[in-house]
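step 4 of 6: structure.
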Amino acid sequence: MSCLRVQTKAFTKGFSMPLTRLFSTGPQLFQAETDTKFTDFGYKQVPEADKEKLVHGVFSSVASSYDVMNDAMSMGIHRIWKRHMINKLDCGMRASSGEPLQFLDVAGGTGDIAFGLLDHAKEKYGDTQSKMIVADINADMLKEGERRSKKTVYADSPRIKFMVQNGEKLDAIPDNSIDVYTVAFGIRNFTDKQAGLNSAYRVLKPGGIFACLEFSKVQDPVLDYFYQIYSFSCLPMMGQFIANDRESYQYLVESIRKHPDQETFANMIRKAGFYVPGKGYENLTFGVAAIHVGVKL
Amino acid sequence: MLSLGQRFSIQAKRCLVRSFHSLYHTEPPIADPSTLENKILSKAYTDFVPKEGFTEEAVNHAAAAVGTNPSTLGAIFNFTTPSRDMAMELALYHMKFARQEMYEQNKEAAGKMFNEKDRLQFYMTKRLLLNEPIIQHYHQALGRMILPSNVSESLKELHNLADDMSYYAGDKSTDFAWYSKRFAVAGAIIQSELFMLSDHSKGFSDTIQFATDRLQEVNTAGRIYNSFEEWIIFNGISTLNMIRSQVARG
């Protein structure tokens, strides 16, 4: 078992960006700018101020081929994960309640989760009043979602609003105004994830639900070994062939690896102030992805 | 990152958590009142079940009273429970709450009794009487629990109840009787609860009599089994010895 772990490490290191500079000016260079805070951008360390721009670049360049790539990389499983999360959240105005829900889907550029949640509410509870805000920091991704909404029943509907918003701040969203906050495959790209969780706590009404679908850590070391092989060798290559963009997908796999594991992330959610039911997460496909939930009390 | 040793020690600790209920009979709160789920269910159970029965509406009203939104209740429950059925959760809450109360309210009185049979009898009576406040809605709860999709959770809870009763009554069996006792007690519980649904006698005295008879049958069956076992062993050995003696004579 242990030798396998060592192999995995060596393997991932081999395929990653170099972590340290091998020439000697590196340390001096860092010394000169000691007040700059650094954060991870995949395996690279970049100044905090730059990450937003870099992530923006990644998603602007993948916006058009985003869905084709998602389907190719996950072999369609990402649709099942999203559907599973929507079914489990099981949100929708109950007939006896009379109070429409206000959803907020952060980093929901393409609108998958947003349309899914509204569809579920309508199909299961006959809810045709609940509203949705789709927020994304990237205007290109948001445009993709708006374009797609034209093909659904929500085309030009007053029930759905698209907003360019930074998920860490959510400036335009008032405190205590949201019933259900969802973020699917987005929080990984936040510069300060804790700040993102804190803003989620701020905008939610008391009793509101926070739900996050994100890549996580495969729990079984043997499966994890093969998963790492797949993600570090196949995914950037697929990115190169299908979307003609190796760098973006190299960032994608590295950022997945850098994202905190299930327990750590559940603790970050607790730290933001949420009540977490049970252990706080559900693993999907051996932990390749996980759904985290929290309740604002 | 944990070292390999640490990992193993964590796994070893996990193994220690009881897989056999009564060998490590720890006593965590059965219906833990600190979790939000149980707060909602407890509110529904005490305030709304008497009026509305074991229904989804009762849970919805309780959720609103506790300060959560009934329209998003699924998100709170579905990640921790397999049923996805609020009425079932409420029925299970009754089972857990009553099981907890059965022990908490009566452990001192039970401690003064001398034999296992009396204690079992005593706990059984007390547990049945805990159904009294909700008895006019209890058929809904039983109906929910025997739905095919819910039956495995219900059986688990039935086993927990039979196990707790046997354990607190003082069962120390370490052989196959461990199973047969629990099976027999579980059977007696189900029969008595069904009997109780249509019992109109004062203070449910008929139900208590019925339960006493069922437990008496369990005891009789146990004695028959033991006597039969003894008889078989005696005769087996005798037969063997007789054959041996005949063979030795040539």
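step 5 of 6: annotate
 - Residues 8-16 of chain B have pLDDT under 50 and may be disordered.
 - Residues 29-249 of chain B form a domain with the Tetracycline Repressor; domain 2 fold (CATH 1.10.357.10).
step 6 of 6: archive
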